[in-house]
Amino acid sequence: MDTPRASATSGSSPIGWAISDQPVPYVQALEAMNARADAIRRKEAPQLVWLLEHPPLYTAGTSARREDLLDPNRFPVFETGRGGQFTYHGPGQRVAYVMLDMKARGGDVRGLVADLERWVIEALSALNIKGERREGRVGIWVRRPDKGENREDKIAAIGLRVSRWVTTHGISFNVEPELSHYTGIVPCGIQAHGVTSLADLGLPVSMTDADVALRLAFEKVFGPVASTEPPV
Question: Which of 47, 83, 182, 190 has the largest count of CB atoms under 10 Å?
Fold first, then answer.
């Protein structure tokens, strides 16, 4: 049976779990996330997972290539300090910003990324979808034999930043976004595969249902959480 890593929450209070009901502008979210990360460093606030949606936009990670921005005038484009390349955020996509104290996890960044992947895979499993890792392709993938023998589509992206022992950014999980909005970029720099969502896979899952699956899976991987108010 899978159990949370012992270092994730040992000797600390439960990780906060906050959900914003309305889309949060990207700049406002970054300011709130970074302020909360600073408070965590100062031991003035508990760790937090913040679930939200954004208005339509593109973000560029630290490895983004300008040629992968195919339609620069379509949506606002924001440079961000997370790892990875270009990705899309918008309504119908659940973004989870993860603000964790890496000192409490033994400083294992690689292990944290693996746990974030397992978190998404566990949530998908609860929704009867098999999500998989792929060597050299960050994120969680779903096989699509209906679209070709070797076709795989990404259903969740992972982009993390670790600064002074506290993480920011996190995952994006496609529930029912407008998938045509991805055509303005080469998502994560990968051209050979596509992007999917729960709705695209034929699952009429509400955002609330997705949130329940994400919370139960998070607790399975990381340990207990406690509901709290969003930072904005």
Answer: 47
